[in-house]
Amino acid sequence: MNPPRTGVPGNGQDAGREFALTHLDALESEAVHIFREVAGEFERPVILFSGGKDSIVMLHLALKAFTPAAVPFALLHVDTGHNFPEVLDHRDRAVARHGLRMHVALVQDYIDRGVLKERPDGLRNPLQTVPLTDTIRELRFDAVFGGGRRDEEKARAKERVFSLRDEFSQWDPRRQRPELWNLYNGRHAPGEHVRVFPLSNWTELDVWQYIRRESVELPEIYYSHEREVFLRNGMWLTAGGWGGPAEGETVQKRRVRYRTVGDMSCTGAVDSDADTPDKVVAEIAVSRLTERGATRADDKMSEAAMEDRKREGYF
Amino acid sequence: MTTATDPAAPPSPAGGPATTLLRFATAGSVDDGKSTLVGRLLHDSKSVLTDQLEAVERASQVRGQQAPDLALLTDGLRAEREQGITIDVAYRYFATARRRFILADTPGHVQYTRNMVTGASTAELAVVLVDARNGVLEQTRRHAAIAALLRVPHVVLAVNKMDLTGYEEPVFTAIAEEFGAYARRLGVPRVTAIPISALVGDNVVEPSAHMHWYHGPTVLEHLETVAVCHDPVPGPARLPVQYVIRPRTAEHPDYRGYAGQIASGSFRVGDEVTVLPSGRTSRINGIDLLGEPVPAAWAPQSVTLLLADGLDVSRGDLIAPTAHAPATSQDVTATVCHVADRPLTVGQRVLLKHGTRTVKAVVRDIPSRLTLDDLSAHPAPGRLVANDIGRVSIRTAEPLPLDSYGASRRTGSFILLDPHDGATLTACMTGPTGVDTRQPTLDRG
Asked: Quick one: signal sequence residues (chain A) (predicted)?
């Protein structure tokens, strides 16, 4: 946890390159600044925590931002009911280890109560929006941290670090506040809230380089392992009670790992032998596919799939 | 704000080659080929991945276009793709072996001037694009003026579409000279002019085979090697206090740390410091860099300062060296860019956010509005509307420790907010403009 820092300050005489931060130090410093701004300006912030790598890195940064005090935010997980057991296990251990409070909103509850209907394609990621926005309203969260990165998707490339949402949690890309210098504007009316993205300027490779540098622990599905999978729409999906394989789809054992972690019904594995952070960094550095292009079905539905979901309140 | 300096920086903690971060912004008029340039930079630096390219090819086919439209890589919103224009700033990320880049891709339309201000506020370099056939236009001057006002340390003039002017040196030289003269009047320290063809790929990533008379760097080469000179360290140290860290645990019963991101300069353990606006003084007992004690820290590190005395310090205060503390004042004059659709008027009550402090304020006077194309100042306009640049005098309810923007982009800048709905109204830069507005007309040679 004590990474060496580049450079030491001189006497101001030859100040220059020895003061330059590496890109990881610069990104870390910026993310910590964002966490502290929210802690200083908001009443009820919460961190969206899925147990995926971005939210784990987000939590790691929050822990560093307030050390030696505790993180002054609770966690919120929207559980699709189709999560990987390894990820839920990791989530619960992280919460226990750091003495955090966590709220869980269950998509399954909404389906059981008849509020949400299972989609014909079985995808549950799009169903997360209603439980998410309901919980934000009921628990009166006024700042909601998300691990979204601008490099993930072209609609996300347009996102501000502080993104105002109306009382219906809607994002209006044409009415975004200009974001100037590092003077983030967190003002909002009662009922509105602000989505905050401390990893906005990070790329997938940055996240992995940071995981490697800081020895951040991840659910094991991020590293190469043998798994029973079947092919659907060009993606290797994990067999399981959520609804696969269907007739005509055959299960086979492959060495795979996951680049993103979401609902099992739409998150695909990639063939990989990378079983350490070093090997993952090397693998991503030469990959010719984006993280989402390789492994997410929900973004392939239309050219504006992400923009449309974000308008409705998706993170 | 991050520093990026020499690419030959020390090795990174990970053991791989160290990379620094360069934030830059692009600006260009509609149809100057800005999207093509950005697309070409991403594409030729191999930052566009197969699935993104396939998505662009599919979308281009649907639209009946014959070749993949690289602009679709960057236009992320429905409305942008429908209209074929860029509405809002988009951020792009790419890397070479030498540097990581954050590109703020800003729209060229006059009505989106505020978006260029957004992109330029954090940029260390701005690329201003012109069409070699048209030369320096009003919009080019506007982009140069914004880069100058925001004190973006480096400006690159990319003279595009050289393929359509026969790759002729005199065409390029004339444009570079005219732009250079204008930029000098604006106080831009340095302009690097590069003749390019974004469409063909001349001098973007690969050197051109068509312009043997040009011996300078390609656009990417320049981005990779430019030494960013706005090094924050020589400036006086400033720490806007964001948050007070008090664990009150058995392990840390008395810990009381002042957390914030160093805005400029550097702090060392033992430094005598003054807390503003109270003016009380103390000494730095310790500096924690995210949990790790360090003897010194510098901008833009996020740190926690521990002081020798139990002063009353809270969010919004500024910690500065006693020997170089800024003066505080309730009256401030600033150069501003109005970014909201509702106007800013004399007498208007606003909120002012400076560093981590938000105070009530009133607009006392709007002495002038700047016409960017000829840099003339129009006296007493009474109000500023969206995208206007002007001078504004403000009276604040509490004294603020403001530096001049010329000395510090961080502690010399502030924003005005609407107290009713919190909307961001105006981007403000304290002190003189640096732009000579006394001459009403531009010397066009």
From this structure: none
Tell me the per-residue pLDDT of A188-227, one tens digit each, with 9 for 90 and over.
Answer: 999 999 999 999 999 999 999 999 999 999 999 999 999 9
The beta strands (E) that lie in B97-253 are given as 99-105, 125-131, 154-160, 191-195, 239-240, 243-245
Task: Name the pairing type of β-strands B389-401 and B328-338.
Answer: antiparallel
* Entry pTM: 0.90
A304 CB neighbours in chain B (<8 A) are 77-78
Q: Do A32 and B234 touch (CB under 8 A)?
A: no
Please answer yes or no on whether A26 and B3 come within 8 Å at the CB atom: yes
Same fold, B20-225 and B239-321: no
H runs (alpha helix) in chain A? 23-41, 53-66, 85-97, 107-112, 129-138, 204-214, 277-286, 291-295, 305-312
Domain B239-321 belongs in CATH node 3.40.50.720: no
| Fold observed for domain B328-430 | Elongation Factor Tu (Ef-tu); domain 3 (2.40.30)
Find which of A182, A207, A302, A306 to mutate to test the B interface (most B CBs within 10 Å of its CB): A182
How do the domains of chain B map onto residue ranges?
20-225, 239-321, 328-430
Judging contacts by C-beta atoms under 8 Å, the chain A residues touching residue B5 are: 16-17, 19-20
* ipTM computed for the complex: 0.89
Half-sphere exposure in the Cβ direction for A26 (13 Å, CA): 25
Distance to chain B for A218, nearest Cα, Å: 18
A 10 A CB-CB count for B250 gives 6
Cβ–Cβ under 8 Å, residues B205 and B224? no
Which of the following CATH numbers is that of domain B20-225: 3.40.50.300, 3.40.190.10, 3.40.640.10, 3.20.170.30?
3.40.50.300
- Within 55-84 of B, beta carbons closer than 8 Å to A belong to 55, 59, 73-79, 81
d(CA B354, nearest CA chain A) in Å: 8
Residue tagged 């996020």 (tokens)? B302
Cα separation of B94 and B24, whole Å? 12
Q: Do A181 and B122 touch (CB under 8 A)?
A: yes
Q: What is the pLDDT of residues A24-67, one digit of tens each?
A: 999 999 999 999 999 999 999 999 999 999 999 999 999 999 99
* Structural tokens at position B103: 């590109």
Minimal Cβ distance to B87: which of A33, A66, A174: A174
Mutation target vs A (from B57, B305, B424; most A CBs, 10 A cutoff)? B424
* Chain B residues lying within 8 Å of A289, measured CB to CB: 49-51
Going by C-beta distance under 8 Å and a sequence separation of 6 or more, which residues neighbour residue B225?
Answer: B7, B98, B217
CB B196 within 8 A of CB B155: no
pLDDT at A11: 36
**Residues B197, B219: Cα–Cα separation, whole Å:** 11
Q: From the candidates B77, B92, B151, which should be mutated to test the interface with A, based on the most A CB atoms within 10 A?
A: B77
Q: What's the CATH architecture for A23-205+304-312?
A: 3-Layer(aba) Sandwich (3.40)
CB B132 within 8 A of CB B161: yes
Q: How far is A129 from chain B (nearest CA, A)?
A: 20
Is B323 at the interface with chain A, CB within 8 A? no
**How far does the CA of residue A106 sit from the closest CA of chain B (Å)?**
31
Q: Where, residue-wise, is CATH 3.40.50.620 in chain A?
A: 23-205+304-312
Longest CA–CA separation in chain B, Å: 76
Q: How is residue B285 written in tokens? A: 């007992």
What is the reported pLDDT for B91?
87
| DSSP H helical ranges for B123-277 | 138-149, 169-186, 219-225
